[in-house]
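G., the chain you wanted modeled:
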Amino acid sequence: MATSTYLSNPKVQIGAAIGSLTDITDQVSAVTLTVTKEALEDTAFGSTSRTMTAGLFSNELSMTVFASYATSESYAVLAPLVGTKCVIKVNPADAADGATNPGFILTDTYFEALPVINANLGELSTYDITLQGGTYSVDTTA
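Predicted structure as tokens:
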């Protein structure tokens, strides 16, 4: 049984560089950061089972963002980042970085596509976006 749980309410920031991140927490409804170390086969002749060794990291972040075209809202923040390497930082809670609220960061992550409109009658419009690659780090300093 889990001894510690938390209610999901992360802080999400994105920008061109770590020093120029924009908080888009109030515009995001889902976020998933997956850290993957690619498996490379290193099986040698005479082996009876395949074996693997760690290769490069292949990280990915996906998120669902509410569509808004107002100044400083989701479209205005995200559109200039399409086709660039950017930085995204996600914390489990909207509080300072620390051991119990680490900042998970992807630096130089590639933002390939932004669906500029995704509309369905009677529903709130959202963008489902994916950022690929980048260097993963964790910030636990306040």
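The beta strands are 11-15, 22-23, 28-34, 37-41, 52-57, 60-66, 84-91, 103-111, 126-132, 135-139.

Shout if anything looks off.
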